[in-house]
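Now read this:
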Amino acid sequence: MVYDYVIVGGGSAGSVLAARLTQDPAVSVCLIEAGASGRDIFVRAPALVAAMVAGRPAIHNWAFHTTRQAGLNERRGFQPRGKALGGSSAINAMLYTRGHPADYDEWAELGAEGWDWASCLPYFRRAEGNAWGADALHSCDGPLQVADQSAPRRISRAFVDACEASHIPRNEDFNGARQEGAGLYQVTQFHHGQRKGERCSAAAAYLHPAMARPNLTVLTHALVERVLLEDGRATGVQLRRRMRRQHITARCEVILAAGAFGSPQLLLLSGIGPEDELRAHQLPVAHALPGVGANLQDHLDYTISHRSLRPDVVGLNPAGLARLAKAAWKWRGSGSGLFASPMAEGGAFLCSEPGLARPDLQIHFVIGIVDQHMRRLHLADGYSAHICALRPHSRGTVGLMSANPARAPRIDPGYLSDPRDMALMLRAARKLEQILEASPLAPWRGPRLYPHDGSDAALEADIRARSDTIYHPVGTCRMGNDEMAVVDPALRVRGVAGLRVIDASVMPRVPGGNTNAPTIMIAEKAAEMLRSEARH
C-alpha cells in the first residue's frame, strides 16, 4: 500500500495532521494507531477519566512505568498515556491551557526559529472553537470545541475564593492577557448540538469527521515496528496488525506523531539515535543522532487530599456511587452535571516568590480524592489539590528496554535530580497548604489524608514519598539547530530525508501549563508547513 504521507500515531498531533492534510483531495494519507477508535463511552463521558487514568485495567491507556527514581525514594513512577484515536486527549482532564507567551519566545531563543508566541498564536486560534466567541486571543470557529464547565461544584468556587484569600487574584481566562491568578478551567468539550457535554478529543474534533474521505486510510490496532530507510531516506514503515506484518510505503514523507515516549522509541528501533544506545540492543546504526530520547521534561506533581465534611463532592462509598449513577442519567439527557465534569475543576497559576516575570507554579483542584493516579482507592468523600513546578531544571531520558517493538520504552524522567527543583517544590507545597487552610474551604475541610509534623524535613519526605507526574512529558525529539537537536524548526529529522516528528516530543522546553493545546497547535502549524512545501 502506497500513500503520500504515512502518519504514525493517531493522538492529538496525528489526528490534526491527518484531517488537515486530507483537506486536499489530491493528497493521500495513511494514519496508523496502536489503539482503538476512541469513540466509546469511556472517552465520551468526561467523568470516566477516573476509570481510564488508573490503568487497572488498561482502558485506552499504555500505562507505562518509569525506571526507579532516586529523587522519589527509588519508586517507579506511573505514566498514563492515551492508546486510542485522540491519544492522551482521549483520557485527559480536558483542560484547555496554552502556557505563557514567554514560553514560546523562549523556544525561539533556544533555536526553534519561527516558534515564538506571535508565530504560534494564529495556530492556537485556528484550532479553537470557543463558546465565548472570537477576539484577539481566541477563535470561535475552530474544530476543537472549548467551553466553560457546565456545572462546577460549589467547592471549586470555594477553592478560587481560598486562593483570593491567600492573595492570588481571580482570573477568568488563563489564556487571556494575564496567566497569573485563580479560576475555573475551560475544557475541550462539546458545547452545542447532540454531543453537548461530551469530551471533544482531538480525534472527535478533527479526525472522526474526516474519516469518510476517500484519500484517508486509518488503521487501528496496528503497532508500527520501525521506519523503513533506503539510502538515507524514510520510505515507509513496517507494522504488525492482526498477527500479520505489513509494509506501508510513503511517496512523500513518514511523520512520527507517537508522543514524547513513542516517537524516540520508534526512531531508536529504526536505527536512528545515540550510537551507544543502539549498540546496547544490537541494533544497526542507520544514522547517529545523539539527541534522540534526551531532554525529557515533565511536571512533577505533589498532592494534598482531605476528607470532605460535605457530600457534594465525589466519593466511592455507596451514597457517592448512587450520586454518580444519578449524574450519569442527567448527563445522558442534558449533557450537564457531575458526569460532564473534568473533575479537576479549579486551578491557579501563581508565583513562588515576588517579582517573577511569569508564574512558575500551577494548581489543579479536584473534586475527589486522587491518590497515586486513582490506583490507591479511598471510599470517603473528599477533594484533592495538586501543585507542580512549571519549569523544572531536572532532565531525563527515553530509551529502549529491548529491541522488541512490543516492549514499553525505558522512561527515566530524572525527577528532582536537580536540587533546585526540590527547593521550589517545598515552596510550592507551603503555598498549597496555606490555600487549603483558608476560611472559604472550612465547611468542607475534614482530616488530611497524609498529615506530617509541619517541619521542612517532614514535608520533603512526603514530597519524595508521594509525588509523581501530572502527565506532561515533552522534549525527547527536541527541535533546534545544535548537535543535540533531533529535528530542525521545520520538524524534519536531521540527517534523514522524508522523515519528520510532529508531536510534544519536539518542544525544546515544557510550556507553563497543560500540554494538549500546545501539541494541537504544533500540528496545526506543521500541517500548514507541509501543505505549503507541497505547493512549491
